[in-house]
Specification:
The complex is a heterodimer of chains A (228) and B (314). With 228 residues, chain A is of the alpha/beta class. Chain A is built from seven helices and ten strands. Chain B is elongated. Classes of the chains: A alpha/beta (228), B mainly alpha (314). Chains A and B meet through α2 and α3 of A and α1 and α9 of B.
């Protein structure tokens, strides 16, 4: 589902590479946790997958799409196939909760009737029923993150990338978010989660990939933070 | 097709909703646009008024051909016909000897002794052809036509009347009107360019404030037109409303204080004509202002959003 082959990303040659010959293979329906300290290269890895950045060298293939052959005009199509949850939520500030989630469907031309049917269902999955008309500024951090998750999953993507989705949340809300991700994974979506929350990593017991100084230093199945 | 219509409707709908939700930003941007569009409208009206003043001067200037008494009425009418066919001629007035005397009497109604003396000597006033040009620059062409030997022999030695002092006066007026016309056109163009630049900067700043929205939509996979569309609609609304406000402001200015405007223009501007011109061309001016407002608004938003829509290439 996701293949990175000796991928290197260098922003500034004097500062070294943010990612250095990283190779990673994620199977369909897998739940993979990427851990590492701040600045290790986790976010760079995800930015490469969403094609916010281009690799300096190496090959990336996601869902059968070879990024080397991807033209600029096809990038929106790629992003529609991947659901992304950002650490800073990235909600549209001038849209309501409903509109933020509906936006993901509107851009792919889904009919209004289907939007009205689907969005409430997804909002109830993330426990946001009754808050459809709130603006993002009227929500707590946890609620905003759940809106971001609802937006990421409403198109039922085959791949979901979550960049530190619990980074700004208290433990209770963090677990709510993780439970939603697990639920989505059970429905068949491949999940790639970056976090440095030891508790979550230890309890989830999933495949854990550790990145240090831009290199993959370990890749273990059913692992915990301590074993990394 | 249906999907495209849905998308188009969503773009327009989102643009209108965004306009209402960002009303503070919209009011700030529109305030600047209203001021600049009002200046453009004033410069247009001022230019038309000056143009009218120039035309009025032009209409009063003619070249007169004084015919010999030996010239027959048929020859005179033939000359009139030939003159009317000249491209530089606007209109021709033919006065027979009697009509010329009447005109002379009217001109000198305050000096009856002159009129009495003229009548006493058996009407010395020659039959006259007054030739009015389309444009002051064409006076010379008319003069050349009238001084052709075949035409000159029908006229008195002093004819045509485009000579010495009169020639100097007409030439001076021609020069002045030409300069005024150029100043008028340049002023309108300069104001239009300044207006376009100010509006462009205003919209660019409004979009700069919301650049993160563009980035987010990009990350979610929205197409360029779907992201840009609502901003273009929003800017077009700015342009439309600002244009309407600018026309209403000018309209109110004429309604409320035509006399005050006349006084403040120091007599340089014929405010009555400006008012008439505005009333007569109200819908054209409104359409023009709306077109300018919408075009500058949409073009500015297309350019302003472009930089935030680019994909990283390295």
């Amino acid at each position: 589902m996701i293949l990175l082959d000796r991928v290197t990303k260098t922003y500034n040659r004097d500062l070294g590479s943010a990612l250095d010959r990283v190779t990673l293979h994620v199977e369909p329906k897998e739940f993979v946790i990427v851990i590492g300290q701040s600045g290790a290269g986790k976010t760079t890895l995800l930015r490469l997958l969403t094609r916010e950045e281009r690799p300096t060298s190496g090959k990336i293939i996601v869902g059968g799409i070879d990024y080397d052959k991807l033209k600029d005009k096809d990038i929106p199509m790629l992003r529609r196939k991947i659901g992304v949850v950002f650490q800073d939520f990235k909600l549209l500030p001038n849209k309501t909760v409903f509109e933020n989630v509906a936006f993901a469907l509107e851009i792919v031309g889904v009919s209004n009737r289907e939007i009205k049917h689907t969005v409430p269902k997804v909002l109830s999955i993330v426990n946001l029923k009754g808050k459809e008309d709130r603006m993002p500024r009227q929500l707590s951090g946890g609620e905003r993150q759940r809106v971001a998750i609802a937006r990421a999953i409403v198109r039922q993507p085959r791949i979901l990338i979550a960049d530190e989705p619990t980074g700004n949340l208290d433990p209770k809300h963090a677990w709510d978010v993780i439970k939603v991700l697990e639920k989505i994974n059970r429905y068949g979506t491949t999940v790639l989660l970056t976090t440095h929350n030891q508790d979550i990593v230890n309890k989830l017991k999933r495949r854990v990939v550790t990145i240090q100084d831009g290199k993959v230093t370990s890749d273990r199945a059913n692992a915990g933070y301590n074993k990394a | 097709m249906q999907r495209r219509l849905i998308t188009l409707w969503r773009i327009i709908h989102t643009g209108i909703i965004n306009f209402m939700r960002n009303i503070t930003l919209a009011v700030a941007a529109m305030a600047v646009m209203v001021v600049t569009l009002t200046i453009v409208l004033f410069s247009l009206i001022t230019n038309a008024t000056f143009e009218n003043t120039i035309q009025q001067i032009t209409n009063k200037i003619s070249v007169s051909a004084y015919l010999l008494d030996s010239t027959s009425d048929a020859q005179a009418k033939q000359l009139v016909k030939q003159l009317e066919r000249q491209p530089s001629v606007n209109r021709v007035v033919y006065l027979t000897k009697d009509q010329a005397l009447q005109a002379y009497a009217l001109q000198n109604k305050d000096n009856q002794s002159l009129v009495t003396a003229a009548a006493a000597v058996g009407n010395p006033i020659p039959a006259t052809i007054q030739v009015y040009p389309h444009d002051l620059n064409q006076v010379q062409n008319i003069k050349e036509f009238l001084t052709k030997p075949a035409n000159q022999k029908l006229q008195t030695p002093e004819s045509p009347s485009y000579k010495s002092d009169r020639k100097q006066a007409i030439d001076s007026i021609t020069h002045a009107t030409n300069v005024l016309r150029k100043i008028g056109v340049v002023t309108v163009i300069v104001f239009a360019i300044i207006c376009a630049l100010i509006i462009f900067n205003t919209i660019q700043m409004a979009i700069f404030n919301r650049r993160s929205e563009i980035t987010i939509m990009r990350l979610l996979g929205a197409s360029t037109s779907y992201i840009r569309g609502p901003f273009v609609v929003e800017s077009a609304i700015y342009g439309l409303l600002s244009a309407v406000f600018s026309v209403l402001i000018v309209n109110s200015a004429f309604l409320a204080s035509s006399n005050a405007l006349q006084a403040s223009s120091l007599g340089l501007l014929d405010i009555n004509y400006a008012n008439q011109f505005f009333d007569a061309h109200f819908w054209q001016l409104l359409t023009f202002q709306i077109a300018i407002g919408i075009i500058i608004g949409t073009v500015s938003s297309v350019i302003a959003t472009r930089r935030y829509l680019k994909f990283k290439t390295k």
